[in-house]
Specification:
By secondary structure, the chain is an alpha+beta fold. Helices cover about 20% and strands about 35% of the residues. The strands form 2 sheets. Strands 2, 4, 5, 7, 8 and 9 form a 6-stranded mixed sheet that branches. One of its GO terms (molecular function) is protein phosphatase binding.
Length: about 160
């Protein structure tokens, strides 16, 4: 009979990132051929065979995985033996910490670029919009320092 079903790679808990591929192998220490393997995800059958390949995983792949090894002994094949592996807990992180850090850095960099653009724009606008010259500076020949327009009402 089959015995000591194991999943590799161990340990019994795994953290992976969304989009990563995960390959799990099931094997038995003892068992006469033919041995069949069934994969369980959260106690639901999801695949057959000694290898479970999960490509482009997402958060929905989180949970527990087990493999069940089965064989039959005798000519009548009425004696079925099963060995269940220990559970492997798989936690799928929604995003890589490097992507999160890069997003934070790029957001900060964008903020700094916008801040510098606003400061430069304000400075140029302030300079070009004709802030009156400092009255303590002596006027140059022909320069008009101030223009004053007064509107008056005429009576009647």
């Amino acid at each position: 009979p089959v015995a000591n079903a194991t999943i590799t790679p161990g340990p019994l808990s795994h953290q992976v990132h969304a989009g990563d591929p995960v390959t799990l192998h099931c094997s038995v220490q003892v068992g006469s051929a033919p041995v069949t393997f069934t994969w369980l995800h959260n106690d639901w059958e999801v695949a057959q065979g000694p290898v479970l390949e999960l490509r482009d995983i997402d958060v929905g792949h989180s949970g527990t995985y087990q493999c069940m090894a089965t064989n039959q002994l005798g000519q009548d094949e009425h004696r079925v033996f099963q060995a269940l592996s220990p559970e492997l807990a798989l936690e799928v992180m929604s995003q890589s910490p490097w992507v999160t850090a890069a997003t934070g850095v790029s957001g900060s960099l964008l903020f700094l670029v916008l801040l510098v653009a606003v400061i430069v724009g304000w400075h140029q606008w302030h300079h070009l919009c004709g802030v009156p010259p400092d009255p303590l500076d002596p006027p140059e020949a022909g320069e008009v320092l101030y223009t004053h327009i007064m509107v008056t009402k005429q009576a009647g």
